[in-house]
Write a structure and sequence with these properties.
heterodimer, A: alpha/beta, Rossmann fold, B: about 375 residues, mainly alpha, ABC transporter involved in vitamin B12 uptake, BtuC, 14 helices, 2 strands
């Protein structure tokens, strides 16, 4: 009995970086036409492995076989010649060029532009990826941008398509359409290697899953026969405790009131907020959903004080007009703030954890006395955070950049929560964070709200918002929908709102 | 096939941060040896004349301190700005302005001075430098104009201003139209600290600046803000640190220190106003700041090293008839080797090729 050769077979792949073993004797077999999930926490070695397959990195040891033949993948161009395509999590597109021009730049032999446009139209038609080759990229939604990247790969007729966290930027409806495309590709014999830590979607889409932990393969399974919980436990290697939602108490006074907030920006690619109004009351968690780039960054900046708003009354903290106040003054009023970017905004990569504790802690903790830094207190504050939030690190002297994403996020959220804020604004609390840390972060946010603080969560992760929020509103093209109680809405309804199907005054942005 | 490879270390090497300046000095000496040899001089004798002979007498050591004083004063201020990503290239002009304002007072009160004149000159010198630093600060904060360009261009304005004054108001009325002022009177000259040398009170100010600069950066909340703004401006915005305030502060501070250095020159070793107050101290201080790793103690050491290159260059000219450009060549080599060896902080050198492509394995 002979079976067709494996599409790709990795044996004993090992890759060492200074100070860490990223892949340790990894074996992986991909068959033609299968959709194969690569599962693992952050830092489990998924990215390294995929980069080795795509020729970006080179293994220190191990064998790669392509269609049964030993092979060496020198670089991404070599990988593309073999028939390997990859769609990265972060797109590499030029905003000011058209779809066809962008695709042409990524091809090794693009050919004349007219012929290319025709091929783009044909391929996108065949796989249900509607795309106009003449449009400029800056006009495209994130989902459409991703289609550009996928079409770019498909034009090279790949035998293996690698997708790195493809749905993190999509609405549920867009994700469903993407899955249809992927299934059609698989039916035609293309192998798909699918990287994600959204477990439900892996259960819905994939035929096989390989689980990585600490650089090693710790198991493989048929995800359709597992539960999301059992998959998560394979990933983190211990039992998972999911936060339990206590029924919400009586919502108290409004801690944050936003009234008719509109912003203007010099940046032509910014999404200005248009007449946004909402309030967050003591004891509740308000979730704001929306696909990235619909005004989240602008809303965060207007709330934190990094961008001042013209009308002071349009942002009120504890009833006080605050639109004209900077971050420091708003902190003194009781605001704490966790930005979306951890390294580079929420923390300074090169500084130690005690110095990073001082970064925002100076406002509400006694860390500075008559202009001098009290380093002893900053150190013990950092140690309190590390202890209370189980931050895995070798101490308060560790540089922020040495922490994993999940541990740094626990540190930053801990730093804000221990300041006993009356109002906490959090952007993407668990983006790219492993399941264990995500559960701890969710627990902490719910506890904070139940202790009487108001919490605002801005996230693209609907599962997260449904776990956390008492009410959910949706941001689309700078407009905010009415909020609705979480138990009176559904993922589908919120998904439609994220696609822009809600009533707001018509304006020039609409297409 | 490559014989030498650079391999990323993963994390910056602490030891190399301190070792590369020494390595740069060693490479400069080796290159200097070869250079002298190629030019037909006895390299051992030349290097001795350049680097050793000036240190063999009390007078020589004194001269070293005299030269190091303005370099250290300027570099301390510049380094604090550089830490905050404020690139003040205008120390030369700020130094000149300090000499103009402070020295101007000495001339204005010529013959009517008293104990109060010298302190007033010091204050005026610092104010003049700070004023010159305030111009790029204003342009940056108000119009977002690059302080690199504005501060650099103001150096030439300051020089022309000095030239104008030396040919007009500041000129010695009895000086036969030479562009030099009267010699300052005793009450407007900085007192000497060590008999038999020209070491003056300014050197004490430089040491004080080293101490205060360290204290500012290591202990105060302002210093912390400067560090955060320099490393990650967006994190500073998140924390609510006022970037404009820091731009003002660092430019005023470095201007004032450069102004003090300028006043120290005219009220110190020069003792009068003339059109060539500084042989480029304000520019050399940039090298001193980086050679000293922007750290006050490092700057003190680097200041002495650069001072030695000035003095050694002069000594080598006199002893061996070497061309004057030799000073600049040595300073240039030192900076070049420092920048080149800095790659060792993040990379280590491996010999021999491992396998075909490794260079791109930087994630």
């Amino acid at each position: 009995m002979s079976s067709p050769p494996h599409r790709l077979e990795l044996r004993g792949i090992t890759k060492r970086f200074p100070g860490c073993l990223a892949n340790d004797q990894v074996d992986l077999v991909l068959r033609p036409g299968e959709i194969h999930a690569l599962l693992g926490e952050n830092g489990a070695g998924k990215s390294t492995l995929v980069k080795i397959i795509y020729g970006v990195l080179h293994a220190d040891a191990g064998r790669i076989q392509w269609n049964g033949q030993d092979t060496h993948i020198p670089d991404p161009a070599g990988a593309r010649r073999l028939g390997i395509g990859m769609v990265f999590q972060h797109f590499s597109l030029f905003d000011t060029l058209t779809v066809a021009e962008n695709i042409s730049l990524g091809l090794d032999q693009p050919g004349p532009m007219d012929a290319l446009s025709a091929r783009i139209a044909e391929v996108s038609e065949r796989y249900g990826l509607s795309l106009d080759p003449r449009r400029h990229v800056h006009n495209l939604s994130v989902g459409e941008r991703q289609r550009v990247e996928i079409v770019r790969c498909l034009l090279q007729d790949p035998k293996l398509l690698i997708m790195d966290e493809p749905t993190s930027v999509l609405t549920p409806q867009e994700a469903t359409r993407l899955f249809e495309t992927l299934r059609r590709l698989a039916a035609e014999g293309c192998t798909i290697l699918y990287i994600s830590h959204k477990l439900e979607e892996i259960r819905a889409l994939c035929d096989t899953a390989t689980v990585l932990r600490g650089g090693r393969v710790v198991g493989s399974c048929d995800p359709r026969r597992e539960t999301a919980r059992s998959l998560a436990e394979m990933m983190i290697g211990t039992e998972l405790s999911t936060p339990e939602r206590l029924p919400q108490g009586e919502a108290g006074a409004a801690k944050l009131q936003v009234r008719h907030l509109s912003t203007t920006s010099d940046n032509p690619f910014a999404t200005n907020l248009k007449d946004v109004s909402f309030e967050v009351r003591a004891g509740e968690i308000l979730g704001i959903a929306g696909v990235a780039g619909n005004g989240q960054a602008e809303l965060m900046a207007a709330l934190s004080g990094e961008a001042l708003v013209p009308d002071p009354a349009s942002v009120a903290i504890e009833g006080r007009p605050s639109g004209h106040l900077g971050p420091r003054e708003r902190r003194l009023l009781g605001l704490a703030f966790v930005p979306e970017e951890r390294l580079g905004r929420g923390a300074v990569p090169e500084l130690s954890l005690s110095e990073n504790a001082l970064l925002s802690g100076y406002a509400r903790e006694p860390l500075v006395r008559s202009g001098l830094v009290h380093f002893g207190r900053a150190r013990s504050y950092a140690e309190r955070i590390i202890g209370a939030f189980n931050v895995v690190t070798h101490g308060h002297r560790a540089e922020a950049r040495s922490l994993s994403g999940g541990n740094l996020q626990k540190f930053i959220i801990g730093r804000e929560i221990l300041q006993k804020p009356r109002l906490l604004v959090v952007g993407q609390p668990t983006w790219g964070v492993d399941a264990g840390a995500a559960a701890a972060i969710h627990r902490a946010l719910i506890d904070l709200a139940r202790s009487g603080a108001a919490v605002l969560v801005i996230s693209q992760d609907l599962d997260e918002l449904f776990v956390l929020s008492d009410r959910i509103a949706v941001l689309f093209h700078g407009h905010l929908s009415e909020s609705r109680p979480t138990h009176h809405t559904s993922v589908e309804e919120i998904g439609l709102l994220m696609g822009g199907l809600f009533n707001h005054p018509p304006d020039e942005d609409e297409e | 096939m490559t014989l030498l490879r650079l391999e990323p270390r993963g994390e910056a090497s602490r030891a190399m941060v301190y070792a590369t300046p020494l390595l740069a000095v060693a490479l400069t000496l080796v290159s200097g040896f070869l250079l002298f040899w190629a030019m037909g001089f006895d390299p051992v004798k030349a290097l001795h004349a350049f680097f050793i002979a000036p240190l063999m007498s009390l007078r020589g050591l004194g001269e070293l301190a005299v030269k190091a004083t303005p370099l250290v004063l300027c570099a301390i201020g510049l380094a604090i700005g550089f830490r905050a990503n404020v690139w003040n290239i205008g120390a030369e002009g700020q130094l000149t302005l300090g000499a103009i304002t402070g020295g101007g007072l000495a001339l204005a009160f010529y013959g009517e001075g008293g104990w109060w004149l010298l302190p007033l000159m010091i204050v005026a010198g610092m104010a003049g430098g700070a004023l010159w630093g305030a111009i790029p600060a204003f342009l940056r904060v108000r119009f977002n104009a690059s302080e690199i360009l504005t501060s650099l261009m103001l150096n030439y304005v300051a020089l022309h201003l000095l030239n104008y004054l030396m040919h007009g108001p500041y000129r010695d009325p009895d000086g036969f139209a030479f562009p030099e002022s009267r010699l300052f009177e005793a009450d407007s000259v900085l007192p000497l600290l060590v008999a038999g040398t020209r070491v003056h009170l300014g050197s004490l100010f430089a040491l004080l600046a080293v101490g205060l600069g360290w204290f500012l950066m290591a202990r105060t909340f302002i210093g912390f803000q400067i560090k955060v703004i320099g490393l990650t401006p967006t994190a500073a915005g998140y924390a609510g640190f006022n970037q404009k305030k820091i731009i003002w502060l660092t430019l005023l501070l470095s201007g004032a220190l450069a102004g003090l250095a300028g006043l120290g020159e005219v009220a110190g070793p020069i003792g009068q106003m003339n059109p060539t107050i500084s042989p480029g101290y304000g520019y050399t201080a940039i090298i001193v700041a980086f050679l000293g790793r922007l750290h006050p103690v490092g700057i003190l050491l680097a200041g002495f090293l650069m001072a030695l290159s000035f003095i050694g260059g002069e000594a080598a000219q006199i002893a061996l008839g070497l061309p004057k450009a030799i000073t600049g060549v040595f300073q240039g080599m030192l900076l070049f080797f420092l920048l080149a060896t800095d790659v060792l902080i993040r990379y280590r050198v491996r010999f021999g090729a491992k396998r075909a492509v490794v260079g791109r394995a930087v994630a």
